[in-house]
Write the structure tokens for this entry.
Amino acid sequence: MLDEQEKSVILGCDIIRSIPLFYCVKEHRIWVGDDAAKIAEKSKSVLQDENVNEFLRASYVTENETIFRGIYQVLPGEYVVISKEDGSIFRKSYYEPGMRWIFLQAVTFISKTGNITEPKWRR
């Protein structure tokens, strides 16, 4: 999703991560998709040995990293804002058990203000 001023790309995953979502910011370009290998091919990212070893031992890579250098994944219940101006990345979990979903509030806040810092949420 692009914000209204098209200054950033906003990504979000549901709380069970029904569809994986990967992104890469490299050389003033942003790649987004559901296949990390295709993004790696287009962005010319290489395998990251430490993460490959982790994947082989545990069948997953921890946190938001992947087996490819510079390619990251959006975690369940998280949104990510990538600035098109400078490539900066802001990550925020929008879901906590017992708390109302706030992803749409976050998107509205970012779209209206252009501010990707954390707003004060109401429960």
